[in-house]
Amino acid sequence: MQSMPADAIIWSLADYPGSQNVASLSVRKIDDETLVQLRVRAARHGVSMEEEARRILKQAVAAPERLGDLAVRMFSPAYGGTELDLPEREVTEPLEFPR
Questions:
Q1: Shortest CA distance to 14 belongs to which of 22, 6, 3?
Q2: Region 11-17: what's the mean pLDDT?
Q3: pTM above 0.85, yes or no
């Protein structure tokens, strides 16, 4: 059996009673300042450090928001956005090209 490096990220599946298989992740060599920041961030959100780490990981690997969805969220009144004030368009005659 090969030994695992000390700074490895370890994951495994654990079977909890009454639930489906859930992945478990251990991360080694996290510096003290990062742990303090994680603790503060978790407290600010009213969750445990473990839950905060799960949320951070989920957001980090999630698919990026589609541009159209972002535009709707930014500019739609239903989402609290503002209507864009567009200037009046000037009607022009179509161009004619010599044959």
A1: 22
A2: 49
A3: no
